[in-house]
User: What shape does this take?
Amino acid sequence: MKIRDALDNFSNVKVLVIGDLMLDQYIKGNVDRISPEAPVQVVNYNSTENVPGGAGNVVFNLAQLGVQVFVCGVVGNDIHKDILFERLKMSNININNVVIDESRPTTVKQRIVAWDKHQLLRVDYEDKNFINKNIEDRIINGIMELIKDIDIILISDYAKGVITKDLVEKLVKISKENNKKIIVDAKPINFEYFKGVDLIEPNINEAEKMANVFNDVGLAGKIISEKLNSHVFITRGKDGVSVFEKGKKPVHIKTHVEEVFDVTGAGDTFMAISALGLATGLSYIDSAKLANIAAGIVVQKKGTSFLSLDELKRNLEYLKSNGMLIE
Assistant: This one.
């Protein structure tokens, strides 16, 4: 299948995202004086912006592309859960399998921002202890009900306690029984949980920590692939992405970014697009190429940005017409 043809099939894909749901909260104001009480800036409040974060950002990226998204995670029974649910429902995201755990708060990253861009302070509300077996069983039961109806599974692990070793082992078993691919974005601390997944996508810093190898992307990718028995995409910022398919030589794909404004959310965009590529029948190499193009669009925007399907199509045609993309 050609890359361009895959884009037209995105709307037919059903994706299940499992992971650490968060609320990114931005409290905005202006600063024009120092407090007389302590040597700190006084922020004159203007507004509050709430955006889905963590696994929620992956979900939001998919929803903006017209994909049918099911999300599975854990939140507390609090006002932040209500805000997060409202934002997800606005984008027609299915939240029926989000579990409410009365014993923990909804994870929130609250940022104090001056002049709409300068971050002064961040306060995190979270419980990073692993979920208990009862919550884990509820998640698995929900996945079992969905598995026949979805095309691909994404695990977005921010090491906030939702993704446990037992949960991953059960997910891998269920996915193989139902012939569904699992794609993972994980923090290095948990990476050995993911043995048997189809694809893991660390950035270069995460990959070096996972492999305990530095300044050698080829060796790092080889070690991770062998340890997990999985394919590996290592994203390398302005240097593109390195693809390690099992049993094949690594392939290094360049990026075509003229200027980077903000890398916020680029990894989530990469994950979303690579998953859609694989779900629509693209090879691992072509899925990585497409995801690399998508992430390159996002980093040229300021702040947390989302990608539209039209933007992706225009950039794809531009690169093809200028000989920068060979399918």
Q: What stands out?
A: The chain has one domain: 3-30+43-321. Residues 284-298 form the longest helix (15 residues). DSSP finds ten helices and 13 strands in the chain.
